[in-house]
Amino acid sequence: MSEPEREVLTYELFGIAVREVAQQVVDSGYEPDMVLSIARGGLGLGMGLGYALDVKNLSAVNVEFYTGVGQTLDVPMMLPPTPAAVDLTGLKVLIADDVADSGKTLEVVHEFCADHVAEARTAVIYEKPWTVINAEYVWRRTEKWIDFPWSSMPPLVNRHGGIAH
Q1: 62-106 pLDDT tens trace
Q2: Residue 164: is it exposed, middle or buried by C-beta count within 10 angstroms (0-12/13-18/19+)?
Q3: Contact of 42 with 18, CB cutoff 8 Å
């Protein structure tokens, strides 16, 4: 059985993706006051967008799908520390993530922001066709498994028991 075809993002392509997504934001006329990255995958895009769009107010949020024994819950949860609502009030926020796959992570962060901010828009490198939320700014759309440059090789350490082999 053959290996399924993959979408491979190199660091070089990632640099191009950041600039092209930033250009989409500029072309749309949206001027965010803050870039809010979803950790971990959205941190690189968020940093790149911050520089390209001259936004120095960068923040990050951690989101995880909580798991019970042998199961994943349907609802992702934002983990503390989360940006204080008072810090977001009246801002135009650009939410950054690497991929909108199910879209549930982006949806949770977008809903969190929507209650407080003037406007929230989303930017992703990749978007899958089955996502529950469509980002305003997308570099590429794909159905393939994506190999990101930062996660295509295993970690150097195993935090759950010594050095990785």
Answers
A1: 987 765 555 666 667 777 667 766 578 889 999 999 999 999 999
A2: exposed
A3: no
Amino acid at 130: W
What domains are there in the chain, each with its CATH number? 6-147 (3.40.50.2020)
pLDDT digits (tens, 9 = 90+) for 13-48: 999 999 999 999 999 999 999 999 999 999 999 999
For the chain, the DSSP string reads: -PPPPEEE--HHHHHHHHHHHHHHHHHHT---SEEEEEETTTHHHHHHHHHHTT---EEEEEEEEEEETTEEEEEEEEESSPPPHHHHTT-EEEEEEEEESS-HHHHHHHHHHHTTSSEEEEEEEEE-TT-SS--SEEEEE-SSEEE-TTTSS--SB-TTSSB--
| Total-model pTM | 0.87
Tell me whether the omega of the peptide bond preceding residue 40 falls within 30 degrees of 0, making it cis: yes
Cβ neighbours of 18 (radius 10 Å): 22
